[in-house]
Input
Amino acid sequence: MTLCAIKADNLQFSYKNFNALNNISFELEAGKLLALLGHNGAGKSTLIKLMLGLMPPSKGTLEVYGHSPFSGRQRGALSIGYLPENVSFYDNMAGEDVLHYFAKLKGVTKARVNQLLSEFQLDYAKKRPVRTYSKGMRQRLGLAQALLAQPNLLLLDEPTVGLDPLASAFLYDKVRELTDTGCSVVICTHELSLIEPRMDQALIIGQGQLLACGSLASLREQVPGSGLSSGLSSGLSSGENSHTDLHANTDMSLSTLFYQLMTQLPCFDSSAGLEIASCQR
Output
């Protein structure tokens, strides 16, 4: 039986009168990489906060490895690593001291810290204060911190922003090593060309709604060349079902699929590229 890492069923979250997430349902198999995609303000960060158990949903259910991340008793059984978009450490602390500090909080041995410093090529700079680290070094230190307790679910928010191609490739190589050992990974990103060849499936949301979910091949079937398939969430632009030959989309890139989905949103502004003005606020 396939182990399910994340299962969301009709997940909703509201801030006062604003629906940040509306009826989001999906599953992620253990050991797979999920690309969490959407325009700015789509609800991606809200979904990550729910996965982390920082706040409960307004409606619906969310399980991580069969446990509720919102229940204090069940949360203790979960092992989740997290790297925020803007990682922040104590600038005057040495790199190794940062990891030792978090290791103590998580009950992790010094040997594990030394292992990660070596694995993430930070041995040579471990005595240096973090303020002297480059962006790539900070990201490697942040990822090492997220992996201290050897989590079975890793959440990464825009992990490659500002990184050069070599640093980005290093990070994704580490992610693939993790999924190969059974760790499930969710990456929230706008860098679609980087994630496309590496993802197992994508979850695309817009204005709090589920627009499409599945492998790249599945997405191509859900987004015919002339418009959305009829199976997408309600609330999007209506129209007759397209009878376009789906074979025409077998080579369509993730970026093209994403753009076509975004153009179906009621408040899409083509003059602003992929920026979406939320008409619900």
